[in-house]
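FIELD: query
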Amino acid sequence: MTVDLKTTRGTPIVWSDSGADLVMTLNNLAAGVARIGAQKDLGVGATDETFTVRLTVQFETAPVIGETVDVYVSTSDGTEEDGQEGVADANLGTVESLKNMILVRSLVVTSTDLDHDMTVSGVARITTRYFSPVVYNNTADNLKATANVSEITFTPVIPQSADEV
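FIELD: result
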């Protein structure tokens, strides 16, 4: 007997400058700067563990092909956070703290076009109640200086068993 496993997707959790579920100011994120978003509380009891992560950015000036914008996750037990960079939307005190966070994926710049969405997705496994996204602009150019052009979304991926095959 085998079981056909299916996947459903939960409600996306969006971080952006304003008007989203949580705040993460990516508007004009400077070159060489990392930013942490407001912390998400998944609640008590059973929670989702696997998330599809999608980052979309634009640049203010023509970016350099091959440079990256890196996506991390800082998890927390409610008392201590990975990297000890806090739980609110803010620039990281030091990019060295990224070494103590979970790397999800790097968006590699493939175009020098402005007003062009660049998007990358990855998968994050989050086994704690609390987490924050972290974006490191590891390029020589600022992100677009327009609110809500750049954003990051975490969508729960929920396994389900289906009929026996």
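FIELD: remark
The domain at 14-158 is CATH 2.60.120 (Jelly Rolls).
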